[in-house]
Design a protein that fits this description.
- With 379 residues, the chain is an alpha/beta fold.
- It folds into two domains: 237 residues, Aspartate Aminotransferase, domain 2 (3-Layer(aba) Sandwich); 120 residues, Aspartate Aminotransferase, domain 1 (Alpha-Beta Complex).
- It contains 13 helices and 15 strands.
- Strands 1-9-8-5-4-2-3-14 form an eight-stranded mixed beta sheet, with helices on both faces.
- Strand 2, helix 4 and strand 3 form a beta-alpha-beta unit.
- Helix 9 runs parallel beside helix 13.
- 50% of the residues are buried.
- Bound molecules: pyridoxal-5'-phosphate.
- Pyridoxal-5'-phosphate binds next to helix 3 and helix 4.
Length: 379
Amino acid sequence: MSERIHLSPPDMSTRERKALLAAFDSNWIAPVGPEVDAFERELATRAGVSAAAALSSGTAALHLALVLLDIGPGDEVWTATMTFAATANAIRYVGAMPVFIDSEPESWNLDPVLLRQALREASKRGSLPKALIAVDLYGQCADYDAILSACDEHGVVVIEDAAEALGATYRERPAGSFGAIGVFSFNGNKIITTSGGGALVSNDDTLVERARHLASQARQPVAHYEHEEVGYNYRLSNLLAALGRAQLQRLDALIEKRREINQAYRQALEAVDGISFISEAPGRRSNSWLTCVLLDEAHVGVGPEQVREHLEAQNIEARPVWKPMHLQPVYRDCPVVHGAVAEDLFRRGLCLPSGSTLSKGAQQRVIDAFLGTPRLRRG
Ligand SMILES: *Cc1c(COP(=O)(O)O)cnc(C)c1O
């Protein structure tokens, strides 16, 4: 059996190994330390914001973002239906009601036209959401000119879930810098990883300082243990921050690699009648975190599940695209604005191995296996 090809494995070099061991030898084995401070500064610079709080996960960052904005029971928070469950789960953690919005077919991101319409209707009903969590899907920024203007019109605050989009840009501005608060993830399969980790970023330094406070059990700065509010244990370990710094130094190269992989898949598969890709909208530069294809079964002769099974039989991991939140049993009771586009993307989409460690040979193995799917018509 040939070696397994994973969807998006970690990409570690001797730089990360050295950084981790140096942090270990410094004995700063705690969720505070010089690596955490430096990682926060470097990440903020990279994300084009003034401050960052390094946290234990992207999910923790989303949760804290909602806590910081004082969102709770009785509030609605709108978000994209096409996202990972963590986005919606955080809304539930604070007791608010998620409302899901359909995707635009080209970028798969939240549809800003639907958003604007729905906000106007909600405004007439007097039931505006307290916040919108925009998601930068599969490494590409959502359409922030349109989203921010629609939200500004009604005073709705925007949180940017840039968990998948570190290093991407929208009109030359970095992902993570568009909302009042931005969120990143450094989970094992993301573009850079600290094994597990995340960050909350903002141009409001006071807000970020409050995030650090809440993430360290909201302990008051006195000698004894004094607490005036409910805190969380959400800080990132100093060891993992060292990994994060080393990964961040390689971010541009990791993005270039993923973009090349995306190009290779496009060149090999786009010619097949009925296969298409997420398009990179003008003014947006994706980090190509995952390359996803859409299969039109009527033309290709097979659907994504047949391709996935055929790849799996050759020890290649591919995965269905995110199942929309409004189709999830746990969110069945939540309102959805349209949803048919996301449902179609889910029915026809497939994520291909996209990790920055994927060699040219391995890319060819995936392409050959894909095109070798029984009954696939190359057209
Ligand atoms: C990965 C991811 C998260 C969660 O990040 P974790 O670090 O795994 O908690 C949130 N939102 C989106 C869109 C993600 O892809």
